[in-house]
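User: Continuing from earlier, I have the next pair ready.

Assistant: Great, send them over.

User: Here they are, in order.

Assistant: Folding the first of the pair now:
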Amino acid sequence: MSFITQVTISIVIYFILRIGLKGKNSLNLSSGVAALSYIAIYLYTYNFINALPTLHFMVTGLSLLFIFIAYNEIIILERKVRKLKKGEFITSEPFSVEKSYKIVFKLLGLGLVFLSLALISGFGMQSVFTANIIFKSIFTIIAWMIYVITLIGIKFFNFPIKYATRSLFLAMWAVLIAYFMNSYIAG
């Protein structure tokens, strides 16, 4: 079973649980189960071959998983905001737009942490610094700069969380695409 298939299965598990579960903790529970399922599927498929490659592929898969989870949460949030603006949103539970954007912002941060761990473990696997690892380092540093600048803008300059999350999400996708496409460019 390939790496991408493992991540896809975990994303499907997340979607099934997210749709099936209702309540405040459905996001946390579905994300946690999806992450644990990815780890279990990876270990079942490859066993524990080597510590560093296993760690590298686990954190790479988790970064992809959490960025896709953040993508889904942004779509859900944007739908709720549109319904709320149209007056169609009627629910028994209170809905906080600001809190939901903060949760997505944290999910993107978690995805970035896993992406950084993948870079660090990638350094350990490389015996020579190739163009591929240098490009990945540059893209990860750019992603961290965007995240920190956005965080500073929210905390100290009253940058609206809605726009910060949307901008960060687009920036993370650009970094992720560049991160994976650089192997085609450099290779």
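And the other member of the pair:
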Amino acid sequence: MDKKLERSNADKVLRRFAKHIQAFGFVRTKPAYFVREAGPVIEFIHIHKYSFGPCFRMHLCIRVLNEPMDFIALAGPTERELLEDVRFEFGADIAAVESCANVMGDFVFNYAEPWFQKWTDREALLEEDSPLYDDQKMALQLALAGESNCMNVELSKLLLKIA
């Protein structure tokens, strides 16, 4: 498949994928980001299109709204950490595009959503096995104590294009 068709089909997969996960409250805010605000955090899925072929990597992430980092840290697992043999590959025809979007949507339903649900107990995000980095945990602790910095919150929303 030539690169132009590959890029076009990759975007088709992501548009279809966005529809699959809309029911979970995720909104596509940037070409490769699907986000939902959940109290003091933003839960998001980052999709990386590999350059070597027609396939994707999915990264499940949590960002504390109150964190001061001026970049988006990918704090959380990739699809392979939750299900070793999953593949998000697509081909040249529309059936392959649909199939890839369906596999990605099913993965969110069966693996990503349960992973995000595990962390709805915000106190659990402060524990040692949390996907958050230490500075993110500190930002969450402050937020849970009612001490969020409005500039940090706005920065987080700006980075992930949340209105």
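Worth noting for the second one:
The longest strand covers residues 55-64. Helices lie at 3-21, 79-82, 94-118, 134-144, 150-159.
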